[in-house]
Design brief:
Elements (H helix, E strand, L loop, with lengths): L5 H83 L1
Length: 89
Amino acid sequence: MIKLNSLNALFIAIGILLISLILFFPKIYLHNNIYYVSKDINKLYRHYISLKEENKFLVQQLEDMKFKNQIEDSLIIYSIEEAKQKNNK
């Protein structure tokens, strides 16, 4: 049997501490990595959603500009045709 004096108790305590650190360090490390990776994923996802919304807005603006351009072109062509008809008369 081991005599339990202060020096032996200290070695046992340090041994238990080292064993617990060796056992729990990988778990703690993995949990921290998972946490930071998930934070990065959430940040990228928020950025993706915001870019998607901006893209919808830009597509709508483009459609409005195309429509406006079509209307203006048709009005210009109509006014040119009217001017030609007046000149022919």
